[in-house]
Amino acid sequence: MPVQSEKKVESESVDPSRAQGDLRERIRQLEAAVRSLRQELLAPSRAEIDRAIRADFHALRFRVGAALCAVPIHNVKEIVRYVRVTPIADLPASVPGAIDVRGLLVPVIDARIRFGQSVSFAARGTAIVLLVLPRSTVGIIVDEVLDVVAVAGENSVAPSGVLAGASCIASITTIEGEVVQILDVAELLTTSEWEAVTGALESTRPMVPDVEAFDVPRDD
Length: 220
Known about the structure:
- By secondary structure, the protein is of the alpha+beta class.
- The chain has 4 helices and 11 strands.
- It has one domain (57-214): CATH 2.40.50.180.
- It has helices at residues 16-42, 46-54, 111-114, 191-202, and strands at residues 57-64, 67-72, 76-81, 97-101, 104-110, 127-132, 137-142, 144-151, 169-175, 178-183, 213-214.
- A 6-stranded mixed sheet has the order 4-5-7-6-3-11. A 5-stranded mixed sheet has the order 8-1-2-10-9, with no helix packed on it.
């Protein structure tokens, strides 16, 4: 009786590291799609932007290099004296590090770097303005805090020309004959930059000396 030979079947092996890499890439793509969809759903309409620009409000005015900027006073938590910022790895270029404010770890944005200017060097008037966001607090290094001013909506316009593409500039206004850029604090960093900041802060806990704060007048 003839012996039937068995056919050897080789099973195809799967590289675990390659499979994990493909999965991570797919997850990254899905997360990017979700972020894009969220931005589209939450993006304000042109009419909403125009109404916001035309509204009257009070703002904290400060200087960044030669530029005059301001943020709505309701976004200002407090002003602190400039202290050495503790460097943290894996932060965006415009975020040199963080400071500890009474136990709260606050990431700090260098306004000069954010606006494409030279790196800030601490001077007598240098301060850190703490800004309140919906889910966090962030500091921004400015060269000099000037005053609290009333912003008239009728004098405000949407950014145009070279400033049209600057997402962090909400509007341009004129105060006492000087041009002032009103900042959108939520757009000081991109979504991916905020994620990088959050991840970096969660992985470390630097401690720096507590900072001295100044009271800021607010709208009633």
